# Entry
Amino acid sequence: MTASILYRRDVAARILQEETMLMTDQSIAAEH
# Structure
């Protein structure tokens, strides 16, 4: 049970990181 919670947290963190990177790329593209 604990392992699955840690796994979900890891997956959620990766998704958040990817979304943040995409948003950063879009904002950089909008500036230039």
Q: What stands out?
A: The first helix runs from residue 2 to 31. Residues 1 and 7 are 10 Å apart (CA to CA).
